[in-house]
């Protein structure tokens, strides 16, 4: 079975509405809308036709206190339709509440503090100790205004820039794809914030390895994973 391209995969829709599952497959990946493109790319690349994808609105990224309840409600809504549900969120600012909820519901979730860490690689991210770095992914490079500039009020009160970013030293763009336009956008955002710029090509990082493990559970003779990784 060929996995179709959803017709509502725009950044605006993924930000505000999320993504409904196609209703195919035995395993549902319940994810943040900011990860939809990367997950679908891995599913197609590896022929994981038994996996379906549903996404919650990516804007929950800015409201971590709402993530746990939203995930719990979505698991309850979809549980009867799938043999297994896997949650493609890391902790994402929930303070351990999401992990506790997933344990209670008997569903797996991605390890780590947030998507920056699992794209970079959990071990690598922790070892860097970059407490003065601000991170963007491909999605956030495209959606910088919607997720950073406007929510922080910088479009209306630019004098707040120093208060929010005065303790940062650089913007690190964790690139999932080799896209010159996204790199240029991320570099422009660094200049906008008055920060040094670093591009770090991560590919899909630990996300690919976690999804591979879930894909292979209960399957026999599955093909090897083909994932865009670090050079």
How would you describe this structure to a colleague?
By secondary structure, this protein is of the alpha/beta class. It is 40% helix and 15% strand. It has eleven helices and seven strands. The protein has helices at residues 11-16, 36-46, 67-78, 97-105, 115-120, 122-128, 138-142, 144-149, 161-165, 180-193, 205-216, and strands at residues 27-32, 51-56, 84-88, 108-109, 133-136, 170-175, 196-201. A four-stranded parallel sheet has the order 2-1-3-4, sandwiched between helices. A three-stranded parallel sheet has the order 5-6-7. The longest helix has 14 residues, at 180-193. The radius of gyration is 18 Å and the shape is globular. The two termini are 31 Å apart. Residues 220-226 have low confidence and may be disordered.
What's the topology here?
Blueprint lengths: L10 H6 L10 E6 L3 H11 L4 E6 L10 H12 L5 E5 L8 H9 L2 E2 L5 H6 L1 H7 L4 E4 L1 H5 L1 H6 L11 H5 L4 E6 L4 H14 L2 E6 L3 H12 L15
Parallel strand pairs: 1-2, 1-3, 3-4, 5-6, 6-7
Helix pairs in contact: 3-4
């Amino acid at each position: 079975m060929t996995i179709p391209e959803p017709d509502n995969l725009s950044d605006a829709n993924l930000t505000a509405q999320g993504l409904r599952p196609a209703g195919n497959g035995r395993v549902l990946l319940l994810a943040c809308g900011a990860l939809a493109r990367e997950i679908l790319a891995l599913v197609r690349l590896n022929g994981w036709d038994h996996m379906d994808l549903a996404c919650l609105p990516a804007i929950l990224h800015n409201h971590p206190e709402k993530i746990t309840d939203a995930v719990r409600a979505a698991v309850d809504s979809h549980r009867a339709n799938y043999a297994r549900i896997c949650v493609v969120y890391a902790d994402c600012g929930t303070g351990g509440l999401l992990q506790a909820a997933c344990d209670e519901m008997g569903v797996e979730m991605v390890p780590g503090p947030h998507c920056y860490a699992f794209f970079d690689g959990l071990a690598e991210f922790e070892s860097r100790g970059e407490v003065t770095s601000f991170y963007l992914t491909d999605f956030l490079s495209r959606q910088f205004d919607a997720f950073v500039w406007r929510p922080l009020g910088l479009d209306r009160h630019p004098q707040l820039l120093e208060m929010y970013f005065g303790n940062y030293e650089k913007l690190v763009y964790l690139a999932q794809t080799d896209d010159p336009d996204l790199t240029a956008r991320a570099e422009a955002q660094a200049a906008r914030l008055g920060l040094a710029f670093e591009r770090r090509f991560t590919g899909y990082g630990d996300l690919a390895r976690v999804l591979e493990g879930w894909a292979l559970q209960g399957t026999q003779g599955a093909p090897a994973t083909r994932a865009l990784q670090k050079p």
